[in-house]
Design brief:
By secondary structure, this protein is mainly α. It is built from 8 helices and no strands. The chain folds into 2 domains: about 110 residues; about 80 residues, Orthogonal Bundle (Arc Repressor Mutant, subunit A). Helix content is about 75%, strand content about 0%. The longest helix has 27 residues.
């Protein structure tokens, strides 16, 4: 039914209408659906509706005993929520950024495969960041995650000016790219 025993228990709990299973699924996945809807012309209420409909689709699929979940639960829920939101957008004729959501409904199988690839790339990037070492790891995190300016980074890391910090960031990114492609290539073998 699912990839992990924890997910199997959650799905069985959902089928039995167990409160803890439903709350866990909600807690682990609602923010993802909320972000999808809010970033594509939706409201908080829209996000709640889409998540409820997504859970109903999952529940109805689980009632069919031949249903198999061949990906992470999170990936499946995202694909279903995206499809539901696309249908709502099309019905309401809301203009959306074509680069974010396709005009035609995607095949859920494609979405699941894409999400699995994205998860693998994310995992590979984490591995590459761990291999990167200091000070590059901290410098990249300061710029991309903490959104610090190059001048702040120069002050923080002791570079003489923002241009030197920028050059070091470039060198670190080049190194990170090499590590990422190495890790990515090894994960495909």
């Amino acid at each position: 039914m699912a990839n992990t025993s924890g997910e199997i228990l959650l799905l069985e709990g959902l089928l039995k209408n167990e409160r803890t299973a439903i709350e866990t699924i909600y807690k682990d996945n609602y923010r993802m659906v909320q972000q999808l809807v809010l970033s594509n012309n939706g409201s908080e209420d829209d996000a709640k509706d889409v998540f409820q409909e997504t859970l109903m689709v999952l529940y109805e699929r689980l009632l069919k005993r031949d249903f198999e979940l061949n990906c992470l639960l999170k990936t499946y829920l995202y694909a279903v929520a995206k499809r539901i939101w696309l249908k709502k957008l099309q019905r309401n004729v809301i203009k959306v950024d074509a680069g974010v959501l396709e005009e035609e409904l995607p095949d859920i199988g494609f979405d699941i495969q894409f999400e699995q690839q994205q998860q693998q790339h994310h995992l590979n990037m984490r591995k590459a960041m761990l291999e990167l070492g200091e000070p590059c790891k901290s410098l990249i995190e300061a710029f991309y995650i903490q959104k610090k300016s190059m001048q702040d980074i120069a002050d923080l890391f002791g570079y003489t000016n923002a241009d030197n910090a920028k050059n070091q960031k470039y060198k670190c990114l080049t190194r990170l790219k090499k590590l990422f492609f190495k890790v990515n290539q090894n994960s495909e073998l």
